[in-house]
Amino acid sequence: MGGGSNMLLLNDIDRLVVHINTKGKEVLKKDKNHIWIKVAAGENWHEFVLWCLENNYGGVENLALIPGNVGTAPIQNIGAYGVEVKDVIVDVHTIEIATRKETIFSNSECKFGYRDSIFKNLQKGKYIITDVSFKLTTNNHIIHDNYGAIRSKLAEKRIKKHCIASVADAVISIRTEKLPDPKKIGNSGSFFKNPIISKSDFNKLKEKYPDIPNYSVNSNTELVKLAAGWLIDQCEFKGKRFGDAGVHKNQALVLVNYGNATGKEILDLAYKIQETVKQKFGVTLEMEVNLIS
Ligand code: EPU
Question: Residue 186 and residue 230: Cα distance in Å, rounded?
Answer without folding.
Answer: 22
